[in-house]
Amino acid sequence: MSYIGRSFRRIEDRPLLLGAGSFAADCNAPDQLHMRVVRSPVAFGRICGIETAEAAALEGVVAIWTIADLDALPPIDFRQMGLEALAPYRQWVLARDYVRYVGEPVVVVFAVDPYVAEDAADLVFCDIEEHQPQLDATAEPTAFMPDIHPGLLSEPAVLRRAYGDLDAAFAAADHIVTLEVKIGRHTGVPLETRGALGVYDVAKDVLTLLGAAKVPHYNRDAISRMLGLSPGRLQLSEGHVGGGFGVRGELYPEDVLVCAAVLRLRRPVKWIEDRREHLLAANHSRDQVYRLRAAVDRKGFILGLKAEFFTDQGAYVRTHGTTVTDLSAAMLPGPYIIPAYGVEGRIRLTNKTPAGTYRAPGRYESTFARERLIDKIAGELRLSPIDVRRVNLIAEEAMPFNRRIKTLGTEVVYDSGKYRDLLERVLDHLDYDRLQAQLTERRGRGEHVGLGLALFVEKSGLGPQDLVRMTVDRSGAIEIVTGVASVGQGVETVLAQICAETTGIPIERISVVHGQTDRIEIGFGAFASRVTVMAGSAVKIAAEALCDRAMEVAAKLLQTTPDALGLSHGMIHAVDGRASLSLGEIAEHLGDSGGLTSEGRFVANHMTYPYGIHVAQVRIDPLTCGITIERYLVGYDVGRAINPMLIEGQIVGGVAQGIGGALLEEFVYDENGQPLAASFADYLMPTCREVPEVEVLLREDARSPLNPLGVKGAGEGGINAAGAALAAAIDAAIQKPGAVDRLPITSDRLHAMTRRP
Amino acid sequence: MANAESTTKRAPPHSRVARYQNAVQLLKERILPSTADIHDFAFNPPEEDKELFTLDYLRSCMRIPLPPPPSPPARVLLVDDKPVRSCLMFGVQAEGKLVRTVEGLADGETLHPLQQAFWENHGLQCGFCTPGFLMLAAGALEENPDMSDDEIKDVLSSNLCRCTGYQNIIKAVRIAARELRARPQG
């Protein structure tokens, strides 16, 4: 029986359906203290003093700390893409000298009860001398912290990338097309807020942090370094995680504060973030402005592209370093040839919540900019937007296609892809010409309807490596231990399917341990759509090693040679059919000599590049400027689908978030830097009323040559081009090509667009 | 430093702590031993605890007697058969009413048709919103087993899910509704 390619229901679902999930808030320890963070009420200012006496007098308050109590702690370092120049812009665990955004942790309170901790936090007074906040990332840089860091400006870095002969491209151009677009500030907002429980085991001299997510091994090492703990004294443990999306699981001040408090106060410490805190304090994302200038010929072929963009990084540079800007710069050209390209990505600090990655970081934004540009080229040259895409798409014969740019320390080489083929398939599926004719007819009847489409290349399977260990017990059940993490995407089922494919053991008899630093010494976590590619490949390698080992042992026991044996359904049979042994029996036989175990390690120097197309059809109510999505289609090639149902789930979920960022979600600030969207009443996320039925055209046309499974990641294709496709559809519905130059397309902005001449 | 003159003492909130602990004790003694199924129980918070949110109250009650991992991530409960948000309801509002949580939805080892349909149709990913959607749908279907698609969407639009994009949740509720309608009555 084949296990890969089938839509199994998930092995991880039962406890979640029964209400038996173990999320961060479900973790408790006897005698625990509760932590509450006092956050800055102002966007930018010098800390003159902090008054804690009144709070300390409350019964049940155990400790109150400012940065003075944690003077030896270094700031939180970069997990990836750090630069020397960024170091002074790192965030301390509590504000030092200045506060730089509303929501910045300033003081932390520990009490015997969460209600008391919250009451006490309200009594702390922060005396802050307010400064004029910087809120526009495109404005001239200003001082980061006047008089503390003289001369340090709010532009930590400018990334420059280029290839090809831009001057020649512009000299040869028939037309120059320019564009400026903005992508609003929004983020992942997983439904479970962040949370942590730190517990110290005296007997073992080990501090355990529960509530870990995404990158437990990295965070174990980072927290150990900050607190000066020797390796092995800190373990991170992941329970159920209520969504990640890039935001959850990065190392934040609160995680370090919990660990420091457990060590100092010698009691378990629990912290659960509330929703308002989450919206103010967890990483924001997006918020970029692009200025593009394209040299094109008569057919709309892009000869050269000059790009400048600004990333509004918020108040500090967090764990991601330059990641978002770096990815934006590298992925902006997307699926098109673009023989010459130059880009300047400016990282700018403002007095807003610090930013990091959110599902398809740098791609949701750059796809919006690039696809808007293609539509504008088509508009200005009076060509069909489809034809302009056709002439620019990279041909299948050009694969692997070297972009001659690096990102995340790897060269961007599109490993495989049939971009033109996918475009034609999607157009056929839609019956594109007929559909457009119908829409034209409806517009003739006075309806405001339109169709838009956008193409993109994703990236997935970031290395450097992953390791899994596999053990068969006496009953024949398999345990897989991996250092990747689960944020609810179905890791256990997918890895079990890959293991089952090789071993023949059914997935119900396979368990997957993830996110536990005490179970495996290395792990690279769950981000960048890397788990199926990296850990999946490692599982395949380990499963094959396991079967080889079992065959070898069985051959000895059955007094034959391994090539006279076959494996099916977890049983090893002699080819002549006379004898058989189960994997469990072999494990039992090996019990005293280490059991039936194996290891698989998969190393990757290059990422793998899935690709796809989003199509949106919208109807606009001219009175309210309300937008109804009548139809939504995603065509996406993942190389090989391990579990199509789960991939479609990833895509549809991604579309919903993409719609949020395109139409609804935005962190708005007033002129003083006060956040105006700090609750779900103001930060609008899509409900089932706003999300249409999404059609998924899941393709397996271009396997990846870079891993033994041929897979590409599926986590981010659903969100990537949502902003771009909806913008094009809205342009078409109001019959104003290029009208949408900003996300989100809120009703008031749409109203202004329709009134524009 | 801020001036410390305005040190108007608040009511000592330690009493709140004491009440919280007291609530746990009372639940242990009064409600839990006397209820066969602790997931469907008459909610009688002691006088002092009525200001606690129902969610906190339930968390504290579940914490004591159940083996770990305890406590419901559910935000929606059925209080006298009506779906309510436990994090927005004070204990006093639930007084004397029948409270049902997601832990009481399955019949022993047999999943409720809603749970089964969510499982078969990938109606959950991270699972954090799942108890809320299950209880919301359970309450709505008890009230109206014949909901149209539009009515289902209307009900479900009061809850957020950030993973699934909703379509498998809607599909699961539709399928479970059909299953429930086909069951013999009584």
Question: How would you concisely characterize the structure shown here?
Answer:
Chain A is of the alpha+beta class and 757 residues long. In chain A, 28% of the residues lie in helices and 26% in strands. Chain B has 2 domains: 16-104, no CATH class; 113-182, [2Fe-2S]-binding domain (DNA polymerase, domain 1).
How many domains of chain A?
A: 3
Relative helix content of chain B: 25-40%
Order of strands side by side in the largest beta sheet of chain A? 3-5-1-12-9-10-11
Beta-strand percent range of chain B: 5-15%
Q: Strand arrangement, largest sheet of chain B?
A: 1-4-2-3
CATH-level-2 architecture of the largest domain in chain A: 2-Layer Sandwich
Strand content of chain A: 25-35%
How many strand units of chain A?
A: 29
Query: Number of DSSP helices of chain A?
Result: 19
Mean pLDDT of chain B: 72
Shape of chain A: globular
What pattern of helices and strands is seen along the backbone of chain B?
HEHEEEHHHH
The CATH class label of the largest domain in chain A is Alpha Beta
Tell me the distance between the termini of chain B: 70 Å
Largest sheet of chain A: 7 strands, mixed
Question: What does this entry look like structurally?
Answer:
The complex is a heterodimer of chains A (757) and B (186). Chain A is α+β, with helices and mostly antiparallel strands. Chain A has 19 helices and 29 strands. Chain A has a seven-stranded mixed beta sheet, sandwiched between helices. Chain A has a six-stranded mixed beta sheet with strand order 7-15-14-13-8-29. In chain A, strand 13 (285-296) and strand 14 form a beta hairpin. In chain A, helix 16 (644-664) crosses helix 18. The longest helix of chain A is centred in the last third of the chain and has 27 residues, at 531-557. By secondary structure, chain B is α+β, with helices and mostly antiparallel strands. Chain B has helices at 14-31, 54-63, 113-120, 130-143, 149-156, 167-182; strands at residues 40-43, 76-79, 82-85, 97-100. Chain B has a four-stranded antiparallel beta sheet with strand order 1-4-2-3, with helices on one face. The relative contact order of chain B is 0.12. Residues 1-21, 30-38 and 61-74 of chain B have low confidence and may be disordered. The chains are: A alpha+beta (757), B alpha+beta (186). At the A-B interface, helix 1, strand 2, helix 3, strand 6 and helix 16 of A face helix 1, helix 3, helix 4, helix 5 and helix 6 of B.
